[in-house]
Specification:
By secondary structure, this protein is an alpha/beta fold. The chain has seven helices and seven strands. It is rod-shaped and about 175 Å long.
């Protein structure tokens, strides 16, 4: 055989062998070997098993597997302290399982108070209510002597009864019959009777006037002041307008 042909055949054979070995590795990639060591067990893991029965419940807390060869004490359950302190809970073996007797009282709900004391604070309905104070009539200054208002209101020559004070109903009736105006006073002290005068005048239909009762220059009123006296005496806005602006015209026409 020719030497050149023999060299070619050997080279082709070597290439085929290399292709068989390398092409699968290139297509699939290197295979990773499976880990031989097992994953370490989770540490500090506790498992609780609660069994609900007809006569009570049991709770078990098996000790976790130790992470190392050194013995690790089993963790104490949260309820073991109360179980040891209570004579009704009897431990059953080293596993920490306790059985609750049938006649044992039900454990208190931690979200609720252990005991609720009745509220003995007296309610507002049972407390005695203080009686309302009796209103005291405020007497205006310079009180009118008894009989003065009555005599003035019976007199047909009188046009205005100044600061009538705590006038009586009979006097107001006479003032209406004789066309006598009752004064609502702007002056301090005398004005304390204005509300009483307004109430009786409205009740019996007597006429009113707003007067300054001026003793000095500072006692004079503006129209706004006069309206304020009427409103503060208990008149409505319309009544105050009539008393301040219309009633004086009625009096002046009578005097002409």
């Amino acid at each position: 055989m020719d030497q050149s042909l023999k060299a070619r055949l050997i080279g082709a054979t070597v290439l085929v062998v290399l292709a068989v070995l390398l092409i699968p590795e290139l297509l699939t990639g290197r295979k990773l070997s499976a880990p031989t060591a097992e994953a370490p067990a989770a540490r500090d893991t506790r498992t609780f098993t609660i069994e609900l029965g007809r006569s009570g419940g049991t709770m078990s807390n098996p000790a976790p597997a130790p992470a190392s060869s050194a013995p690790v004490p089993a963790p104490t359950p949260a309820g073991s302290a109360s179980a040891a302190a209570s004579p009704d809970l009897v431990p059953q073996g080293p596993g920490g399982i306790a059985t609750v007797p049938d006649d044992a009282p039900a454990p208190a709900d931690p979200a609720m108070p252990a005991a609720t004391q009745p509220d003995r604070t007296p309610s507002a309905a049972t407390e005695p209510v203080a009686a309302a104070p009796t209103p005291v009539a405020v007497q205006p200054v310079e009180p009118v002597q008894e009989g003065t208002d009555d005599a003035s209101c019976r007199c047909q020559d009188v046009d205005i009864l100044a600061h009538p004070g705590m006038i009586t109903e009979d006097a107001v009736l006479n003032a209406r019959e004789n066309g006598i105006f009752l004064e609502l006073s702007y002056r301090g002290g005398h004005c304390l009777g204005n509300g009483h005068v307004t109430r009786l005048a409205r009740k019996h239909g007597a006429m009113l006037l707003v007067d300054s009762d001026a003793h000095n220059i500072g006692d004079h009123m503006t129209p706004a002041d006069a309206l304020g006296v009427g409103r503060n005496s208990g008149l409505t806005a319309a009544e105050a307008e009539r008393v301040v602006f219309e009633n004086p015209d009625i009096l002046l026409k009578r005097l002409k």
